[in-house]
Each structure stands twice: as structure tokens, then as C-alpha cells.
Amino acid sequence: xxxxxxxxxxxxxxPPRKSATGATADTYAQLASDFGMERPATFVVLSxxxxxxxxxxxLMRESLIAGEGDRTGxxxxxxxxxxxxxxxxxxxxxxxxxxxxxxHSLAEAIARGETPSDExxxxxxxxxxxxxxxxxxxxxxxxxxxxHAPAYIGTMLAFHFINRIASALLTExxxxxxxxxxxxxxxxxxxxxxxxxxRRPVPGAGLTLLDAPGPGPxxxxxxxVGPAYAALRDAATAGGGLLDEADRALVRETxxxxxxxxxxxxxxxxxDRSRPGARLALLAALAPYRIxxxxxxxxxxxxxxxxxxxxxxxxxxxxxxxRVEQALPVRASKR
Length: 335
Description:
With about 325 residues, the protein is mainly α. Helix content is about 55%, strand content about 0%. It has 14 helices and no strands.
């Protein structure tokens, strides 16, 4: 059964659904069919920039939904990433999706902050959490079959991006009034999605939304995850054109030295609002939950629309994704 979640947006007002045409409308149709949600806020918030919307969905679809491997395991990986990134919106969403897989006791154990009793589940969750730290030793050996690595890595990287978009541009309320914090609501919401979540659609449909993506990185060679990742990389990094070279260099240098830590409140390397673009990009990368109305207002000027803000946040978010991906222990077989 399709389920529509209504969630307030921060800093932007996405286009109304009735205005969706072309690839945007096709993406919403695939979301309803393959994800079970007609218009989830994590995707609607990207709809002012259709290339970002379609590429984000394609990567999530081809890895989490249609990729090789157990859906419960991939949900645990996504949940681990979301916990590491301190994204309560996504933590709540994946807890509900674990209910949809039928693993109700597992979902509730994690909701209580407990370690899964099943060792394999615990290792996958820990793998997702460790992925925020580039090169973390917990990333090897894989806690899943090597043949499933493209789907698990694609899922992990997709949610490093989606977490940052959600934390920057959405409130924390997955459901009105934070109703998902109640066990009965989590369980009911999961059950409403169960039929969709427990089937695996054929890979490749997400790629039909994309405009000639490249093959992608070596860890995903020969799968539909690779082109989807390449499309998201291209769409997100294009937002760097909103910054001058000095600001792009600052983002690159900061991310090059990032060790996965959450910045302190006294973040000395964060520019003040006299460099609002660089400030927003770095916050989106490392602490998106700290983006304020004042930060956005300092950057806004005539001609800078919601679409431009989405592009800039996506650029910063993907800078962190790229840092994580570059440090993957499979790097030897890359592009």
C-alpha cells in the first residue's frame, strides 16, 4: 500500500506535485511503486532540481531496493549511517522500514538503543555507523557476502547524502507531532509498507530516468548501482559552480582533512557569514543540522532561488560522500 508522509520543509518551498512533469513525474511514480511512498519529503525537497531528484532516487532504488542482498541487512546499514550522522528523521524512517521487513523485535531493540542480539545484524549496523569515519578499520572485512558489496556500499553512500539533505532542509518530524516515536505507530506504519518492502523489483528502472550516466566507480562495476552513483556525483558536484574558486578550495581542503568527527560548536575552520556560500557548503557536509535561517538569509540575494539553495546544499553534502567513498578499502579497483 502506498503511504504519503507529510513533513514540513526548512528554508525552501518545493514545487507542488501537480506541477511535476517528465522525469520528475516518472520518479514520483517509481517511488510509489517501488518504495511504497507516493511523495516522501526526502525526495520532494530535491524536486526543484530534477537531476538531483532522479539521481538520488536511482541510487537508492538500485542499491537498497533492487540491489543484491537482504533488505533487512541493507536497512540496518542505512540505519547505522543515519545514527552516525545524527539524522533523527532518517533513523525513525529506517526503524519503521525494519518493521516493514517483518523484523519487529529488531526494529524495537534498535529504537531502544540496544545492540541487535543477532551477531550478523550487529556487525552490519556497526559497519554502517563506522562508515562516517573515512578508512575506519570496522569497514573490513565485509559483514555481508562480497557479491553484495555494490548494493551495500551504494546504500551506505546514498544515505550519507540523503541524511545531509534531510538534516539541512527538513524538520525532524517524520510524521506530524513526531507520532513515529510511539511503538504502535512505528509498527502500523511499517505494516502499511510491508507488501512493497518485501518484494525486490528488477534492477535498472532507476537508470531509465537518467541522462546517459557514466559507468561509475570500480566497486560497482557491472551493476546498475555504478551508473546511478555516477549520475548523483555529476548532479551534486555541479552545485560547486555557485561558489568561487577560493570557496571551493576551502571545501576541498576541509574535507580532505576530515576524520569523520562532528565539529564542535567552536568550529574554528568554519567561515563566518561574510563567506555565506562556503559556510553553507561546509555545514551541509559536516553538520547540516546546524544550518540556520540566518545562514540561509546571509547567502540569499536577488536571483538566488530555492533551486540554487538545494544545489549548494547538495554540493556540500556530496563533498562528504566523496570523502567517504575515496577512502573505501576497495579503492585499489577504482575508476
